[in-house]
Fold:
Amino acid sequence: MRLKLKRNTKTSYLIGFLSLLIIEILIANYINDDFIRPYLGDFLVVILIYCFLMFVSKVTVIKGLLIVLIFSFTIEFIQLINIANVLGYQPPKLVMIILGSSFSFWDLLAYTLGVLFAGSLEFLISANKKSKARSMNSDFWQ
Structure:
């Protein structure tokens, strides 16, 4: 049996994006530890990017998840080759904060877990919608 993951409403994705953006800003401004900022921040940022992508586009859930994972891995591998030094260009400080400056395997793990979490939420929401639809149909005929 194949479950088709249905997209949520654009409003849901917008609310998710704005909520996560506020959380990420708070983490960046007020938390300077060895777990929340580096790992939870990376976990949440891929979900934030996913919500933004789903809000502004019409890609499917699976494509959206893959695009975000590939994008985040690409940014991380760009950090590995230290693209700023290779190009002889020093981007503005804000760009360096957003993109990061050092490669970490743990970041890749955080991105992967974040995408898996977003996919799991999509699966659960989609399954719940199907369950409610079946329940409403069976109630109608009784």
In short: The chain has six helices and no strands. The chain has a mean pLDDT of 87. The helical segments are 10-30, 36-56, 61-80, 83-87, 93-99, 105-141. The two ends are 27 Å apart (CA to CA).
